[in-house]
Amino acid sequence: MRGSIEAFHASPPSPGAAVEVLGWCDEIARAAARPAASPAVPQPGPPRAGEVCVLGANGFIGRRTVAALLERGLPVTAIVRRVDALPPEITQGAADGRVRIVRARLEDRGSLAAALAGAKSVVHLATGGGDTWEEVLRSMVKGSVAAAEAALDAGAERFVYVSSIAALDTGGPGTIEDSLATDPRPDARPVYSRGKIAAEKALLALRASRGLPLVIARPGVVMGAGTPMQHSGLGLWARDNHCVGWGAGEHPLPLVWVDDVADALARIVAHAGHDLDGKALNLCAAPPIGAREMVAELARSSGRALHFHARPLGASQLMEIGKWIVKKVGGRRDPEFPSWHDLRARSLAARIPSGTARALLGWKPVEDRETFLDRTVRIHAGR
């Protein structure tokens, strides 16, 4: 980008060319202001026996989950907010009648009830987010409860809530076995982690009060085609090509290939019996790869000058305290003191074996180092 700007100023275009470019810009602005026509999608028709409803079906994990469910021969309802950019996993399934496409929003109880009518199973991936606790509480927590209540009203036999290992205290050292326990200090975590913890607790309360057939799935650091190279699980990206590690970056991370997450979710849906009800399943593989090596592999595969900078957690904490002091002295209103607890959790030093998915579902994620890198990092080669 810098080179392009320098080249422009070194040899500016003729006045005629400049006018032409401005005309292009004006036309782009006019086109953007016009309301886009929604593409035609097939009418969903009535739900079928064994219908699996996927909320957030066109997302990074959702589109793979739809494909994994279809591979098992299950009828799928893809529940989306918008229909103007549906992935091929959904459009191709809709073309041959295997996928019903339904629009709904977590904030709209009526659309949720209509979308989940006749569902046997629900996979909830549309968990929302926001920059403030109020936004996260509204979209992630209350939205998840609304989806679960709609599933109960529809008579669904399984509700799979896709949470995250961000709900756990991953600072380590040690091992985190599968359980319903979450980080006991949610107030020391950022709003995303707090939201996941609060949503899990709210859904468990709904299970206790109304018998919600709940299964919680917590994917680890999900990698694969479609995720940005600058993944926060690898470190703090101070710039788009400079990653500051949450520590030395040498210990193995709880990585997992996105297709393996989708496979696990499909296995949960297809699992017979009720021995998964009320359980939380962590979904992490164990490839022997740390953050430093991941960044180095990304650099080699993409041809970009990506750099990893190891930094002790103590040094990072001191720097954050320094920033806090500057804000305090500068009159910033109630700056939040840096959380050492959260900084340790970001290091992802804990080992997460994910035994329940392996034992009950026969889940076998990709863990061979070379195969994992081929499917998650080396896909960037030549792009």
- CATH architecture name of the largest domain: 3-Layer(aba) Sandwich
Mean pLDDT across every amino acid position = 93
The main sheet orders its strands as: 3-2-1-4-5-6-11
Rg, please?
Answer: 23 Å
The rough form would be described as: globular
Structural class: alpha/beta
The helix content, as a percent range, equals: 40-55%
Q: List the secondary-structure elements in sequence, H or E.
A: HHEHEHEHEHEHEEEEEHEHEHHHH
At the fourth level of CATH, the homologous superfamily of the largest domain is: NAD(P)-binding Rossmann-like Domain
* Main beta-sheet strand count, sense and barrel state: 7 strands, parallel
Layout of helices and strands:
Blueprint lengths: L1 H9 L4 H19 L18 E4 L6 H10 L4 E5 L7 H8 L3 E5 L5 H8 L4 E4 L8 H22 L3 E5 L28 H20 L3 E6 L1 E3 L12 E4 L2 E3 L10 E3 H13 L8 E5 L7 H12 L4 E3 L3 H17 L10 H7 L8 H7 L7 H8 L7
Parallel strand pairs: 1-2, 1-4, 2-3, 4-5, 5-6, 6-11, 7-10, 9-12
Antiparallel strand pairs: 8-9
Helix pairs in contact: 3-4, 3-8, 5-6, 6-7
3D structure, described in words:
- The protein contains 13 helices and twelve strands.
- 42% of the residues lie in helices and 13% in strands.
- It is an alpha/beta fold.
- The model has no long low-confidence stretch (mean pLDDT 93).
- A seven-stranded parallel β-sheet has the order 3-2-1-4-5-6-11, sandwiched between helices. Strands 8-9-12 form a three-stranded mixed β-sheet, covered by helices on one side. The chain has a two-stranded parallel ribbon with strand order 7-10.
- The two termini are 17 Å apart.
- The chain has two domains: 30 residues; 245 residues, Rossmann fold (3-Layer(aba) Sandwich).
- 41% of the residues are buried.
